Amino acid sequence: MSLLRIYPVNSADSYTEMSDFDEIRAYLWKKGVLFERWQAGAQLAKTATPEEVLAAYRPSIEKLKAERGFRTEDVVAIHAGLPNHAEMRQKFLNEHTHTDDEARFFVDGSGLFYINTGAEIIALLCTKGDLVNVPAGTKHWFDMGAEPFFQCVRVFTDPAGWVGHFTGSTITSQYPLRDEYPAFAG
Description:
Pathway: Amino-acid biosynthesis; L-methionine biosynthesis via salvage pathway; L-methionine from S-methyl-5-thio-alpha-D-ribose 1-phosphate: step 5/6
EC number: 1.13.11.54, 1.13.11.53
Distance between the termini: 9 Å
Strand content: 35-45%
Helix content: 10-25%
Keywords: Amino-acid biosynthesis, Dioxygenase, Iron, Metal-binding, Methionine biosynthesis, Nickel, Oxidoreductase
Cofactor: Ni(2+); Fe(2+)
CATH architecture: Sandwich
Pfam families: ARD
């Protein structure tokens, strides 16, 4: 189940929470973030190859590419069995931007995006079936948790646009990690 928490900037002491999909989608839309629910019913192994994942969701991927101007796609799959998962987690826990939109379709598993709008911090738990598109230039970070598992299709206009430009901000240390949220642990 998707979940959204909205914090004031520089304070994790209070927040507003939403769990209704339509409310989450409407709120994010006002912030320029696309959030949709796609069918993620393909029967894929947890160890499915990128080619198998892309083949299973080809019609949806092509539709998104046509609608949003994306030109290419890949698959990112992270799980706790990967030897470098802790380093990968640490890298994306730092606030950064991209010169391209960050669009991810969660085929399986989950991950937590934090979006810094300047006025608030939005924590968005994405789960199986969620598509999120964080606009280019948006400050954000991503927490996959200490024991990660997710498979995502990523789409973009230019692979170079996915290079993270780190802000150097320490704001991320002011907010709870994914594993510190009981409701986000699933």
